[in-house]
Design brief:
Helix content is about 45%, strand content about 15%. By secondary structure, the chain is of the alpha+beta class. The chain is extended, with a radius of gyration of 19 Å.
């Protein structure tokens, strides 16, 4: 008896991610792990073990970005009600 590789995803709607539905002009590959590696925001470390293992970590510039974006997130949380009222 085999296990389908799709078994954990049964019942999950396929299609565009909610983020892509909200921002339709957002490039599809942007934000993927491959993109983050390519842009130097994530480091992939491979370990010669059995079974093979890899670990991903943020580069210093990515950590710096997260620190800065946290201020934008905090601002959004402080002004959330005003932002929602402005949408109506």
């Amino acid at each position: 008896m085999g296990i389908s590789r799709d078994a954990p995803y049964k019942g999950i709607r396929k299609g565009k991610h909610p983020f892509q539905r909200t921002f339709p002009n957002y490039p599809p590959g942007l934000g993927t792990l491959d993109y983050l590696l390519q842009e130097g925001l994530v480091i992939r470390e491979r370990f010669e073990e059995i079974p093979p293992r890899v670990e991903y970590s943020l580069t210093p510039i990515a950590k710096d970005f997260l620190r800065e974006i946290s201020y934008v997130i905090e601002w959004g949380q402080l002004h959330f009600e005003q932002i929602v009222k402005g949408r109506k």
